[in-house]
Amino acid sequence: MSLAHTRKHSTFIGHIIVLILTIAIFYFFMNYISNYQINTISKINSKYGVTENSLIPSNYSSYATELEKTNFDKYSKPLIDYVYFYKDAKKIDRYYKYAVFENQCITRITITKIEMQIQERDRLLEEFKKVDSIKLSKIFWNRYIDILENKYEIDELREMARAMPIC
Predict the structure, then answer these.
(1) How far is residue 78 CA from its own chain's centroid?
(2) Residue 44 within any structural domain of the chain
(3) What 3-state DSSP class applies to 109?
(4) Shortest CA distance to 130 belongs to which of 77, 59, 89?
(5) CA nearest 82: which of 16, 7, 12, 148?
(6) What are phi and psi of 131, to 5 degrees?
(7) Total number of domains in the chain
(8) Which residues partner with 106 through β-bridges?
(9) Could you tell me if residue 5 is inside a domain?
(10) How do residues 59-96 score in pLDDT, each as one tens digit?
(11) Is the distance from CB of 77 to CB of 141 less than 8 angstroms?
(12) How many CB atoms lie within 10 A of CB 45?
């Protein structure tokens, strides 16, 4: 007799068990990678003094550069975009205040910049909402969403700018 006749054939249940084990190993591996990325960003945040109340560090350019070096696009790209979004928002606010106090009129360019800022806010908000995890509280993810949804008053600024005469 040959060995092929004495060997037991694999069963359907055996295949299911191997499949479940493979899926479990893959899940735990992906979970480990995700935790590593979030912990790395959390360490960068603590290094630059980023807290829930102060999301933009004073040395924001090196903060953004260090986040770029991590290559964790899923988590770091929205954070980097938020830093530059915040800096642009401060510039637009200065342009508006200058227009109100110095000229008593507003330029079309400033109105266009405000409109572009609204589009950028909506894009950035979608980028933040796309990523969802319980572990993201370490890097204050929900705080970024809250600020973009509720605290950032660019729509009111647009209405005030539209009410002003155009230079």
Answers:
(1) 3
(2) yes
(3) helix
(4) 77
(5) 148
(6) -100, 125
(7) 1
(8) 166
(9) no
(10) 888 888 888 888 888 888 999 999 999 888 888 888 88
(11) no
(12) 19
